[in-house]
Design brief:
- The protein has 107 residues and is α/β, with parallel strands linked by helices.
- Helix content is 47%, strand content 21%.
- It contains three helices and six strands.
- The chain has helices at 2-19, 39-48, 58-79, and strands at 26-27, 33-36, 83-85, 88-92, 95-100, 104-105.
- A hairpin with a 2-residue loop joins strand 4 (88-92) and strand 5 (95-100).
- The longest helix is centred in the middle third of the chain and has 22 residues, at 58-79.
- The termini are far apart.
């Protein structure tokens, strides 16, 4: 009897953990867009995003991507919905310097 009860409780916990796990954001890199901008334009946008004083380059591209991915995951947990998204990569001389995520909520 104890084995049956333990098995039932374990199965119930497993089922609940799957059912209430937060949705994962679906990053759709195939939809990414690349927009060439001047250094000055990229600098102004980076400053608006809170990256004032951080030198533009691969590091700002990585930071902007990681911060937005983390934010999307938190939002999804709160609203319990998946957000498909892609990035608009701002480039200077062909090199990505900032990733900007325009999210699309799935209903």
């Amino acid at each position: 009897m104890k084995k049956v009860l333990f098995s039932f409780v374990a199965l119930l916990i497993f089922t609940i953990s799957i059912a209430v796990s937060p949705a994962k954001a679906a990053y759709l890199p195939e939809n990414d867009k690349y927009v060439e901008v001047s250094y000055e334009e990229a600098r102004a946008i980076a400053d608006l995003l809170g990256l004032k004083g951080v030198p533009l380059g691969e590091e700002t591209a990585r930071i902007s991507f990681e911060v937005q991915e983390a934010m999307i995951a938190k939002i999804e947990t709160i609203i319990n919905k998946e957000i498909d998204h892609y990035y608009i990569w701002l480039t200077v001389n062909g090199q990505p310097v900032l990733g900007i995520d325009p999210p699309v909520v799935l209903i």
